[in-house]
């Protein structure tokens, strides 16, 4: 008969003692990892020496010598590979931010739409989700880039909206605000507005706690944030103008240009990720027990109050973690830009720079480190938020 | 004292059956709903007829390239390049080999349910990979077809299948490792899983295609496809591990305690009691993970392998058939959509089948 686990007998052989055995297993695992690491590092150094590959991070300060389609900061060919890294990183963040913004809006609308009582609306939303979720994101990126955007007219026949926004096969052209020195006043007004809103929220909460009266915080805050800066803007003599894109020669000049690569990538990422966000929103709302709504009805609350005070606060707890995960996935998927040449981190740093300096190990590790950092930061924030939002049970 | 007063008869209740009732309930329940319904119909009217015209009514199905005159889809391109989409550059006289692999696979699936002998079952499971590799690659008298000739849907399926099969046991080990009480094993597992899940698949593919050869002695020759498979498997194992961990966490503590109390060892407990239940709970999520992997196989085109999506780009640069990307993309979209959609419906049905929740 076997002995009870928790009290091993003294005379039992060490390999039958679970605690001692655990230590042996762990030592073996560590040893295996050390041997494996030694093996690959050893090979690596031999190979590097044989092939005459440079090592170290000196290449970051050497001249890149290639142009980049689009950069958020000043960049030209004489800049270093280190600068290429920064440009790529900023472009990754740019397309991720645009993607996250639109994916959230589309996802929210479609997710709520799927729960609609209207037959047509819920079915159309379902078709949207089932269609785009089941097509690889890379295929969607290539489709938008090679088929849809490539079939847009040339600059001379551009689609034009209000004579200020133009769309053609070279990209989307939107007016660019030119800020003058007086614009600082508008920014100050906006910041003051934000502070006022913070106080308003606090005041409304105290009032609600004491008297039970509701104050329309959201609408008032919105009004403050829009009206105050607008007033200051006109009072200080409109210290900003718009620079419109104009057709000069064969292409548009001036304004802001969104290159087709960015458009295709942002489109595909938003449309694809929105399907997952929509499912998360739907699951979150469905997870609120029916009894909660019924109880709120029984108390005589109005529908929009029930949504705002009963359903959403509970649904959000379920919705937010998977949605943040989708934001992370979207950011990681932005690396597929390399298939169409949008100049983000993987395309220009792990692509062009790597081809020029050939230091694969450093470059790939740096690229991975960027994504890893983003992942870890986001998951830390999420864990913190989860902890804060947890229903406090006694 | 109250006197009897007859009340006016109430109107008959509204019809609660039939098409008018359904329309009023589901399409025109109030003004907002009615507007949305009308907008939906407008949207359908604007998209469906042109799409059908392009795909079916105006499409060119047969003939030669010169005969194309209409505005619709030119499906003759798909028929012309069909073999390349499916087999890549695999020699035409050897097509029977991948076909045979598929046939054996279906036969085994069919036979597997009928056989109750564990040994025969194990033989089936273990022999299939060997048979497939020999048939696809060659050897034992068969002509050798190097993996550079593999392509199209064949390559897509090879990558997905290897990724799914090989990553599974590795994933289970990492899931168990993450749940382990041994701190070093646990740390190693967590580091592996979080590292892989934190980076995009494309960087892992780059790593396995550019850095991996540096890690091994020069005489060790790594096939390009093999490198991609290593990257994909490492990636998938981390995701499978997390899915299975979810299943492990759902197993009540009493199950472990019961196994302990009858004196089972760790591997007996896991193999006979915990894992069978955990895997059963995880099946829907495992299928979900397979779907993601199947979609992600398209990424191998970025490191220069010609999967079915890459074949579209390649065939549409054929000078004789320039500019047929649209048809190619639509065709590949249909392939992926049908496979992924059926898998996700299957996962859904499994979820319902395994729902033993009696609450």
UniProtKB/TrEMBL annotation, chain A:
Residues 89-382 form the ABC transmembrane type-1 domain. GO terms for biological process: amino acid transport. Its main location: membrane. The chain crosses the membrane at residues 23-41, 85-112, 182-203, 215-235, 255-278, 336-357, 363-385. It is found in: Cell inner membrane; Cell membrane. One of its GO terms (cellular component) is ATP-binding cassette (ABC) transporter complex. The keyword Acyltransferase does not apply. InterPro entries: AA_ABC_transptr_permease_3TM, ArtM/GltK/GlnP/TcyL/YhdX-like, MetI-like, MetI-like_sf. The keyword Transport applies. It is a multi-pass membrane protein. Keywords: Amino-acid transport, Cell membrane, Membrane, Transmembrane, Transmembrane helix, Transport. GO terms for molecular function: transmembrane transporter activity. Belongs to the binding-protein-dependent transport system permease family. HisMQ subfamily. This is Amino acid ABC transporter permease. It comes from Halarcobacter bivalviorum.
UniProtKB/TrEMBL annotation, chain B:
CDD domains: TM_PBP2. It is found in: Cell inner membrane; Cell membrane. The keyword tRNA-binding does not apply. Residues 153-347 form the ABC transmembrane type-1 domain. Gene3D superfamilies: MetI-like. It is a multi-pass membrane protein. GO terms for biological process: amino acid transport. The chain crosses the membrane at residues 27-48, 95-112, 119-140, 152-177, 198-216, 298-316, 328-347. One of its GO terms (molecular function) is transmembrane transporter activity. GO terms for cellular component: ATP-binding cassette (ABC) transporter complex. InterPro entries: AA_ABC_transptr_permease_3TM, ArtM/GltK/GlnP/TcyL/YhdX-like, MetI-like, MetI-like_sf. Keywords: Cell membrane, Membrane, Transmembrane, Transmembrane helix, Transport. The keyword Transmembrane helix applies. Belongs to the binding-protein-dependent transport system permease family. HisMQ subfamily. This is Amino acid ABC transporter permease. It comes from Halarcobacter bivalviorum.
């Amino acid at each position: 008969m076997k002995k009870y686990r928790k009290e091993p007998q003294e005379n039992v052989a060490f390999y039958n003692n679970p605690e001692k055995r655990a230590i042996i297993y762990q030592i073996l695992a560590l040893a295996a990892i050390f041997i494996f690491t030694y093996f690959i590092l050893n090979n690596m150094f031999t190979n590097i020496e044989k092939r005459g590959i440079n090592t170290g991070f000196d290449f970051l300060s050497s001249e890149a010598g290639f142009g980049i389609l689009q950069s958020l900061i000043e960049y030209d060919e004489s800049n270093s590979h280190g600068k290429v890294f920064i440009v790529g990183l900023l472009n990754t963040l740019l397309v991720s931010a645009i993607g996250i913004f639109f994916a959230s809006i589309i996802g929210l609308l479609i997710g709520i739409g799927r729960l609609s009582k209207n037959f047509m609306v819920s079915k159309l939303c379902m078709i949207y989700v089932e269609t785009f979720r089941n097509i690889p994101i890379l295929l969607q990126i290539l489709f938008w880039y090679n088929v849809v955007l490539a079939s847009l007219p040339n600059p001379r026949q551009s689609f034009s909206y209000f004579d200020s926004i133009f769309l053609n096969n070279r990209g989307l052209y939107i007016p660019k605000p030119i800020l003058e020195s007086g614009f600082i006043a508008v920014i100050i007004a906006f910041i003051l507005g934000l502070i006022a809103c913070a106080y308003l929220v606090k005041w409304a909460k105290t009032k609600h706690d004491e008297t039970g009266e509701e104050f329309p915080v959201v609408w008032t805050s919105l009004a403050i944030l829009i009206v105050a800066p607008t007033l200051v803007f006109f009072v200080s003599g409109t210290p900003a103008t718009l620079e419109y894109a104009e057709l000069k020669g064969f292409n548009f000049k001036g304004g802001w240009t969104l290159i087709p690569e960015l458009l295709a990538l942002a489109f595909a990422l938003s449309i694809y990720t929105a399907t997952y966000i929509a499912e998360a929103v739907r699951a979150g709302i469905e997870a609120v027990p029916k009894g909660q709504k019924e109880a709120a009805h029984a108390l005589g609350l109005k529908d929009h109050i029930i949504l705002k005070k009963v359903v959403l606060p509970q649904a959000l707890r379920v919705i937010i973690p998977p949605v943040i995960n989708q934001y992370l996935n979207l950011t990681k998927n932005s690396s597929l830009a390399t298939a169409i040449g949008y100049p983000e981190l993987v395309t220009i740093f792990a692509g062009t720079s790597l081809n020029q300096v050939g230091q694969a190990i450093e470059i790939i590790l740096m690229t991975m480190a960027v994504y890893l950092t983003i992942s870890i930061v986001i998951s830390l924030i999420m864990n913190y938020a989860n902890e804060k939002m947890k229903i406090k049970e006694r | 004292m109250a006197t009897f007063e007859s009340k006016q008869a109430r109107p008959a209740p509204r019809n609660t059956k039939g098409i008018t009732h359904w329309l009023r309930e589901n399409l025109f329940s109030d003004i907002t709903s009615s507007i949305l319904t009308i907008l939906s119909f407008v949207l359908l009217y604007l998209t469906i007829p042109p799409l059908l015209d392009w795909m079916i009514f105006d499409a060119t199905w047969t003939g030669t390239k010169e005969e194309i005159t209409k505005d619709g889809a030119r499906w003759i391109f798909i028929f012309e390049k069909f073999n390349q989409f499916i087999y890549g550059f695999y020699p035409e006289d050897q097509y029977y080999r991948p076909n045979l692999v598929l046939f054996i696979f279906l036969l085994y699936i069919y036979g597997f349910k009928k056989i109750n002998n564990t040994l025969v079952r194990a033989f089936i499971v273990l022999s299939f990979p060997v048979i497939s590799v020999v048939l696809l690659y060659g050897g034992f008298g068969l002509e050798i077809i190097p993996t550079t000739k593999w392509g199209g849907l064949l390559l897509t399926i090879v990558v997905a299948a290897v990724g799914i099969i090989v990553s599974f046991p590795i994933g289970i080990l990492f899931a168990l490792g993450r749940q382990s009480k041994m701190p070093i094993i646990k740390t190693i597992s967590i580091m592996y899983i979080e590292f892989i899940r934190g980076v995009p698949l494309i960087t892992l593919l780059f790593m396995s295609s550019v850095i991996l050869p540096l890690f091994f002695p020069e005489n060790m020759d790594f096939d390009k496809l093999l490198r991609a498979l290593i990257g994909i498997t490492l990636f998938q194992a981390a995701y499978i591990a997390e899915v299975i961990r979810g299943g492990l966490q759902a197993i009540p503590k009493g199950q472990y305690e019961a196994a302990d109390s009858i004196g089972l060892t760790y591997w007996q407990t896991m193999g006979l009691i915990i894992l069978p239940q955990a895997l059963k709970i995880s099946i829907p999520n495992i299928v979900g993970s397979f779907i993601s992997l199947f979609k992600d196989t398209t990424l191998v085109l970025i490191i220069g392998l010609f999967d079915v999506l890459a074949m579209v780009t390649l065939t549409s640069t054929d000078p004789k058939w320039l500019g047929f990307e649209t048809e190619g993309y639509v065709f590949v979209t249909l392939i992926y959509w049908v496979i992924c959609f059926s898998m996700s419906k299957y996962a859904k049905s499994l979820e319902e089948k395994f729902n033993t929740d009696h609450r």
